[in-house]
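Justification of resources, computational component.

The compute hours requested in this renewal are based largely on the per-chain cost of generating structure records like the one below. Each record pairs the submitted sequence with a full structure-token output. That output is archived, and it is also reused by downstream analysis tasks.
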Amino acid sequence: MRTIKAINNFKVDLFITFFLIALGFYLRTIFVSKMGADLTGVMLLFTQLTAYLNLAELGIGVAAASLLYKPLSEGDYAKIKYLTLLLSTIYRYISFLVLLIGIVIGFGIYFFIDSVNAVSHVFIYWAFFVINTSLTYSYAKHSTLLTANQQYSVVRKIQGGGKILIIALQILLLVTTHNFLLYLLVETIGVIVQYFIFKNI
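The structure output for this chain reads:
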């Protein structure tokens, strides 16, 4: 049974990964074409910075999934409840830490990167990047629990399917409106929707 689940997880993950790579490449091409070099540079910089912000997680999800695997397989509900409550608390702190570090980085951008300051509304853009990153931890407990319960394919379908839909909408907005704020807002809405989906599984 575990082997079948592992194979299904691999197939789902492989399909979504390749599809996202292709769609992501097309999105970047459209972005450069519609938004110009300056905003593209800002987006790439902010994407890299938020990737560093995600290091705050430090592999906690993987460790938690390993710890949850045994009590889930044995039906030890008391231990499952304890670990999920602990995980929820940890992720709340991480979410707050990401926001705090994001604010500090925002000041650093203002004082040390002149080329970024030349772009209008740059700090609103950065705020969206930070908030979107922080919000992903709102459902991290649920995705970790599903992963530990050998249901990674469910997690991947929700996150991967959500990302595919988000990118498709972002491409549409870039082509029709050329509005970067709407582009970022779609990401925020997508994260919130994923939270409610995970919460109600």
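Residues 166 and 190 are 6 Å apart (CA to CA). Helices lie at 2-53, 60-74, 77-112, 114-117, 122-135, 140-148, 152-176, 180-199.
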